[in-house]
Design a protein that fits this description.
With 337 residues, this protein is an alpha/beta fold. Helix content is 36%, strand content 21%. The chain folds into two domains: 218 residues, Spore Coat Polysaccharide Biosynthesis Protein SpsA, Chain A, CATH 3.90.550.10; 102 residues, NAD(P)-binding Rossmann-like Domain (Rossmann fold, 3-Layer(aba) Sandwich), CATH 3.40.50.720. It is built from twelve helices and 13 strands. The strands form two sheets. The chain has an eight-stranded mixed β-sheet, with helices on both faces. A five-stranded mixed β-sheet has the order 11-12-10-9-13.
Length: 337
């Protein structure tokens, strides 16, 4: 039985997919199959894939009409024969030790279902500052607890770095097709199902931010799509973990935060108060909800707080203050964005 099946979806990636495949051929782990799934490319991608398959019998080519990323990924999963499934994108490059180290990690840690890696940013950090900030933030999250607690901020792991146990697909489901980012929804669903995640501390993938990347051009990756899917799973998490359910205290009273909270309200979550440091807002009410200073926060155990801010620096300051008040992450508060 093949040890590792690598799923590589391809659509109009003739310029880059050869390098991605070469990085698989350079792996120090020899026991793998590379399942390339061409999603109706209109360029020379399919020719590149067939040429690669002639070079190495471990490379398989599936070709079909264009249906989109989620059906492409699920077709790859259905064809996978390995005990472990890894992901790779057609415009990224894996370092040679990646597969070997991930396989060993899963074999040595049977309680871990998904192992990702840190990434190096292959782009211009000045022109692509937002992408670079996301890489820096994601690279801080290594342990299961860190990944789990950060899940409602942004996607805590980089999709093309993952390797997971194949049985998770039967236990917790495949990629879902909908108005949301398919990878983030899968991580939220698997975390909710109790799957444990970890991340290797070394950057074992060069992650590129191409202008054509789906996260830049597909409406499923728009900011509001992230808000909706986060709110759905955050509301379910709060229903299980918040002892004061359905009431929460939201730290942040700006217009953007209030839009995010509206998604939570649609799932029955009630805001008891907003916390803000802006003296112009403190003492006022927003839709009947009071805005209070941080000094007015109830003692730990008497409220559950959701810091709902996008800025990494602001979120760190808020969490530092909450800890100083005695609030503990996961028990008394959960960060979101």
């Amino acid at each position: 039985m093949t040890v590792i099946s690598i799923i590589l979806p391809v659509f109009d990636a003739a310029a880059t997919v050869g390098e991605a495949i070469d990085s698989m051929l350079a792996q120090t782990e020899p026991d793998w199959e590379l399942i390339t799934v061409d999603d109706g490319s209109t360029d020379d991608s399919l020719r590149v894939l067939h040429a690669a398959a002639r070079r190495d019998e471990r490379i398989r080519v599936l070709a079909r009409e264009h249906r989109g990323l989620v059906p492409t990924l699920n077709d790859g999963l259905a064809a996978a024969r390995g005990r472990f499934v890894a992901r790779m994108d057609a415009d990224d490059v894996a370092l040679p030790e990646r597969l070997l180290r991930q396989r060993r990690h899963l074999e040595q840690r049977p309680e871990i279902g998904v192992v990702a890696t840190r990434v190096s940013f292959d782009g211009d950090p000045a022109r692509q500052a937002g992408f670079a900030r996301h890489v820096d933030w994601s690279n801080t999250l290594l342990s299961h607890d860190e990944i789990s607690l950060a899940r409602f901020v942004e996607s805590p792991i980089v999709h093309p770095t993952v390797m997971f146990r194949r049985e998770l697909v039967e236990r917790a489901g495949t990629y879902a097709d909908g108005a949301f980012p398919e990878d983030y929804e899968l991580w939220l669903r698997w975390l909710e199902a109790g799957v444990r995640f970890e991340k290797l501390p070394d950057p074992l993938l060069r992650w590129r931010d191409a202008g054509s990347r789906l996260s830049r051009v597909d409406p499923r990756y728009a900011t509001d799509a992230f808000y909706r899917v986060k709110a759905f799973y955050l509301a379910r998490w709060l229903a299980r973990e918040n002892p004061h359910h359905p009431k929460i205290v939201v730290w942040g009273a700006g217009r953007v935060t209030r839009r995010r909270v509206e998604h939570l309200a649609a799932h029955g979550i009630e805001v008891a108060a907003f916390v803000d440091i802006d003296a112009r807002k403190i003492g006022k009410t927003i839709d009947g909800v009071p805005v209070v200073s941080m000094e007015k926060l109830p003692p730990p155990g008497q409220a559950f707080v959701v810091p709902y801010v996008a800025s990494v620096d602001a979120r760190r300051l808020i969490e530092t203050q909450l800890r100083a008040f005695g609030y503990r992450p996961g028990r008394d508060y959960i960060p979101a964005a």
